[in-house]
Design a protein that fits this description.
elongated; single chain; mainly alpha; Ferritin
Amino acid sequence: MHSTKNDLPELKRIPLVVLLNQGLAELIDLQLQAKQAHWNVKGPNFIALHDLFDAVAADATVFADSVAERITALGGQAEGTINVVGRRTTLPAYPVEIVAGRDHVDALSTSMAVVGKSIRDSIGRAVELDDADTADLFTEVSRGLDKKLWFVESHLHGNA
């Protein structure tokens, strides 16, 4: 841990940094999965999904940046390399061979739901560690992910 004048005790900041780094890994993985879908989607809803998947990736990038900055504000080290992300992520491996829009929607929405659950669990853990600011950050991320999950999952319903 780096020295900081943040008044949260180091004994609380250490597990918070671990929790935040887990969220960072999952958000980076989600960002990359969304780009995989964005680059490779095919089918009649191509442009709508292409743009939607890019928006998911952009949001995941913004969320990851906010989480990484919170880590460093607490005196921790943000660990966002691909090697660390690969070891830490709990997301299912993205099926790189798929091209159909519905298949990408299904795969990406599954990963988005995994990240959403993990982030919601992290809200409670941050509260237990008496860090309302980290809990608030996780709440903001959760709300944004839920909204984008709704947009993505909407492509699984209806007759289109």
